[in-house]
Amino acid sequence: MAYGSKKIASAAIRMALTETREEENALKKELESLGIKAAAVDCGGEYITSVKKIVERAIVAAKREGVIKETHYDEGAIAGATREALSQIMPKAVGLNVGGKIGMARQNDHISVAVFLGIGLLHLDEVAIGLSHRAAPYAG
């Protein structure tokens, strides 16, 4: 069954919200049964200096889990969507440390990336979620 961008975005958010590796793997299997490829990866650090590393981690995880193939289109779609999701969080995060998870989901040409981060200083944490969608040619 083919889903639209809303369902794929929801899957990416759900992946980003998983708290344990076991929960992440169970959700990945559930989504796989619906024909949706998914991946998640932890990330964190000082926001500004970590953006490049976060984007790279998203690309590597997406390739490792079969969400994307090693093509210019797919890597660019994940990189662009991750940067867009991070830019939505930027106003709250600049100058602070962040930590959380990136969730990615794909079905056919729909790719979504959700970034769920705790942002803070000591114990005064804020939370934020950024979400972005890209369309990339699907080669099966």
Describe the structure.
It is a single chain. With 140 residues, the protein is α+β, with helices and mostly antiparallel strands. It has a single domain (5-135), classed as Hut operon positive regulatory protein HutP (3-Layer(aba) Sandwich). The protein is built from four helices and four strands. Strands 1-2-3-4 form a four-stranded antiparallel sheet, with helices on both faces. α3 runs antiparallel to α4. The longest helix has 22 residues, at 72-93. The protein is globular and about 45 Å long. The mean pLDDT is 94.
Jot down its keywords.
single chain; 140 residues; alpha+beta; Hut operon positive regulatory protein HutP; four-stranded antiparallel beta sheet; 46% helix
Helix tally? 4
Structural class assignment: alpha+beta
Helix content: 40-55%
Instruction: Characterize the overall form.
Output: globular
CATH topology-level name: Hut operon positive regulatory protein HutP
Give the H and E element order: HHEHHEEE
Number of domains: 1
Task: Itemize the secondary structure elements and their pairings.
Elements lengths: L4 H12 L4 H13 L3 E10 H18 L7 H22 L3 E11 L2 E11 L5 E10 L5
Antiparallel strand pairs: 1-2, 2-3, 3-4
Helix pairs in contact: 3-4
In short:
The chain has a single domain, classed as 3-Layer(aba) Sandwich (Hut operon positive regulatory protein HutP), CATH 3.40.1510.
